[in-house]
Design brief:
The complex is a heterodimer of chains A (404) and B (140). By secondary structure, chain A is α/β, with parallel strands linked by helices. Chain A contains 14 helices and 17 strands. Chain A folds into 2 domains: 4-27 and 295-403, Aspartate Aminotransferase, domain 1, CATH 3.90.1150.10; 49-293, 3-Layer(aba) Sandwich (Aspartate Aminotransferase, domain 2), CATH 3.40.640. In chain A, α2 packs antiparallel against α10 (278-294), α4 (93-104) runs parallel beside α5 (126-135) and α12 (342-351) packs across α14 (386-403). Chain B contains 6 helices and 3 strands; from the N terminus they run ααβββαααα. In chain B, a hairpin with a 2-residue loop joins β2 (54-62) and β3 (65-72). The chains are: A alpha/beta (404), B alpha+beta (140).
């Protein structure tokens, strides 16, 4: 049974006060909070078996290696990934995307085309722009409709034999819209193009089966999944990852080093140069366990209730406009109230202990599309409650009254 | 009045407020009421881009005193700008250079100067000092 009261007990931070008020944390799309189990796993690593992995013959190193590799297995299972060596640990989604973008410069030639969507976070735009500049490629953009959904007819017309790679987020961070990635992937494959899905915003809410999805590359961050910051995962199909050159050189990623020639290690080590964030990866595995104990299906059902309730309550406020209207959304509500600046609303809500995100959310093209400088974004998680939404509505009404 | 006296006056005014709501209502009122910059100076050249709100600052020398005008697209930011202008405008560049800005702390608005707020205010104070350096050199 899903019991939000009991779940809240798992998160020590939810007990704290901000500016004298109970914290209401509605900035989950930026980062999720961390359950005590995950926090303890980090402290337990440093207290009991801190050692460098994959090299030492001593017991601590073996224990640390086992725990690190167990995390890889947990993540493989969670996302139904075919092979264990297709799970690459990175520092986060941005790092994951950069590994692919950087690697493709050796695979593409002048005139090849890449397709991105207008709904992307800057981290899924800028690495590709850098690639396009280096390799003289063309970047095409799938436009969005007024509702904030992708214009799929336009996507059809952008695809051609020249298309080599398509990269789209599963869920828009600024609007919470869920994109039809199954369709995007299957259509791209018809032209022989590969697809990268940025799963940073979807993984906390939607159970994703990567084998079924038949996606070529997939990137996520642990800190949006109740895990620690500075850790993420890159998935890639084995043969495709083998075709890519290493991203960074260093220890761990080599097979043999001489000054004449160095040969590289196989997957996944080829992309895990240097000592990784060992405690972070172990904690990432614990976070995945935690989410599975609660069950992502139950999480999603409960979060949809919050989304519907929050949307209805916000819609009662005069002059409030919600951006991104679709039945397929994660619990994210992006809005503006009349002409009030989002900074002003954010400051006043903070005074009342409420954390929301304001501004352009690292997705300026979307803001340009709506001709606004930014939005207020309230993003919910399974440990939030309807009572918290009620308090936000009262606070928001007070802010509006003060600012108008 | 000197910069110090003006700062003291503001700190004194703020001491009558009992809570943050009253402080913010006052800031918002300041932000709403003052036309702070001539529209012809509200250009990209005079903009300080914060990630969240924008600030425009312009300075000109009137005899030996520096006059500041400024604006922001966010009201609370604009309210703080109004306070900064009240303190620093019509002062000698040398006095501006030597002045401290601790009064923002004292009136409970310190968080607005934190870099994470990305509102351009921290840069605005730097810009005010830069103008003071430039005009001080000119006066010498």
């Amino acid at each position: 049974m899903f019991d939000v009261k009991k779940i809240r007990e798992d998160f020590p931070i939810l007990k704290r006060k901000v500016n004298g008020e109970n914290l209401i944390y509605f900035d989950n799309a930026a980062t999720s909070q961390t359950p005590i189990k995950v926090i303890n796993s980090i402290s337990s690593y440093y207290s009991n078996y801190n050692a460098n992995i994959h090299r030492g013959v001593h017991s601590l190193s073996q224990e640390a290696t086992n725990a690190y590799e167990l995390a890889r297995k947990k993540i493989q299972d969670h996302f139904n990934i075919s092979k264990l060596n297709e799970v690459i640990f990175t520092s986060g989604t941005t790092h994951s995307i950069n590994i692919i973008a950087s690697g493709y410069s050796s695979l593409l030639k002048k005139g090849d085309e890449l397709i991105v969507s207008a709904l992307e976070h800057h981290s899924n735009i800028v690495p590709w722009q850098m690639l396009c500049e280096r390799s003289e490629l063309t970047l095409k953009v799938i436009p969005i409709t007024q509702e904030g959904t992708l214009d799929m007819k336009a996507y059809d017309s952008l695809l051609s034999q020249k298309t080599k790679l398509v990269f789209v987020n599963h869920v828009s961070n600024a609007l919470g819209i869920i994109n039809p990635i199954e369709e995007i992937i299957s259509k791209a494959h018809k032209y022989g193009a590969k697809v990268l899905i940025d799963g940073a915003q979807s993984a906390p809410h939607i159970k994703t089966d990567l084998k079924l999805l038949d996606v070529d590359y997939y990137a996520i961050s642990a800190h949006k999944l109740c895990g620690p910051t500075g850790v993420g995962m890159l998935y890639g199909k084995e043969d495709l990852l083998n075709d890519l050159p290493p991203y960074q050189g260093g220890g761990e990623m080599i097979s043999e080093v001489t000054f004449k020639k160095t040969t590289y290690a196989g997957l996944p080590h080829k992309f895990e140069a240097g000592t990784p964030n060992i405690s972070g990866v172990i904690a990432f595995g614990v976070a995945i366990d935690y989410l599975n104990e609660i069950d992502l299906e139950q999480i999603s059902t409960y979060e949809n209730e919050l989304l519907e309730y929050g949307t209805n309550q916000l819609n009662l406020i005069q002059g409030l406009r919600i951006y991104g209207k679709s039945k397929n959304k994660t619990p994210v509500i992006s809005f503006n109230v009349n002409e009030i600046h989002t900074y002003d609303i954010g400051c006043i809500l903070d005074k009342m202990g409420i954390a929301v995100r304001t501004g352009h959310h690292c997705a300026q093209p979307i803001m340009d599309f709506y001709k606004i400088p930014g939005t207020v974004r309230a993003s919910f998680s399974f440990y939030n409650t309807k009572e918290e939404i009620d308090i936000m509505i009262i606070a928001l009404n007070k802010a509006i009254q003060m600012l108008q | 009045m000197t910069i110090k006296e003006l700062q003291k006056e503001i700190v004194n005014e703020f001491s009558f407020f009992e809570n943050w709501t009253q402080r913010y209502e006052y800031m918002i009122e300041l932000g709403k009421s003052l036309p702070l910059i001539n529209i012809k100076y509200k250009t990209n050249e005079n903009i300080i881009k914060g990630c969240q709100s924008k600030v425009w600052v312009f300075a000109e020398l009137n005899k030996d005193r520096l006059e500041f005008t400024a604006d922001s697209d966010a009201i609370i930011t604009k309210g703080i700008i109004a306070l900064l202008i009240r303190v620093f405008s019509n002062q000698h560049p040398k006095d501006i250079l030597e002045a401290e800005t601790g009064f923002i702390d004292e009136i409970g608005l310190k968080e607005h100067l934190s870099p994470t707020r990305a509102n351009g205010l921290g840069s605005m104070i730097k810009q005010i000092k830069m103008y003071a350096i430039a005009f001080q050199t000119q006066l010498n």
